[in-house]
Amino acid sequence: MSPVPRRAPRAAIVAGAIVPLLLAARSAAPEPEPPFAAPSCPAPLGRPVALPLRALELAFLGPDRLLALDGAEVALFELGEGGARLLSRASLPGPLEVVRAPGGLLQASERDAAAWAMTSRSPRAVLLAVESGALVEREQAEALPFPGAPRGLRFRAGTNLIEGEVEGLGGGPFLDVTGTGTPLAVSPEGRLLAAGAGGAAARVGPTLAPLWPGLVAASAASPPGHDDALLVLTATGTQPLLSCPAPGPVRAIAARVHGETARLAVAVDDGEGGSSLLMFELVHPQPGAQTPPRP
Predict the structure, then answer these.
(1) pLDDT digits (tens, 9 = 90+) for 156-169
(2) pLDDT higher for 196 or 130?
(3) β-strands 184-186, 192-194 pairing
């Protein structure tokens, strides 16, 4: 099975408006999903701020801290009205391989102020902690520790395909995988996989970010050179609840849920070998059904 190339990233920062995400959706299962009101796409505010790397993956480490991973390093940024300020950088373990379309994974913990990072260019996963505003290496591992994956996750050599036995999803390979709440993944064919789900699956791009239970953000299944979009959909639905055009190929998405709102960071290819980071805020489609706020 040949890997689906991951698009090169570019990121810029924009503050977004809070918008409702409500719509009517039906799952592939016989029982209908709860109704949602019709959503509208948020209009970004401010200017994009270019990131000094090609983002493969993003992860929040707090309300104003964001990690960005490229093929060779991890960078920590402070988010603010002025954009994204670089705080620290840390190199990944070498020697680094040449991979045409590298993949990357971040498994972050706000409580521990730390994250495991791995790319298909590096031979090992690395645990980085934030100390006095700087990224500090704590340990390395043969595989990236991941919820529901007793042996961790690895990249297939020379590809962006993720391998590892994940509870409810099988052994892969995957283009992306998330273990927050219900395990979700993207198959090499671009299908959204949810643990325990059956029947038809939505077509999505190679990047995911879990939102509230049963809802996920994803990129669109757009061929190279075609317009991309930021999608919001149910984990078992076949059609997006919300589809917002993106100014370039979506390379990575991170989400931070706090009560009834979720903050999204979206890395978009800037067309010049870099990334732009777009920020959005979304409101839960069913007020009162949200998960408890993060501490």
Answers:
(1) 999 999 999 999 99
(2) 130
(3) antiparallel
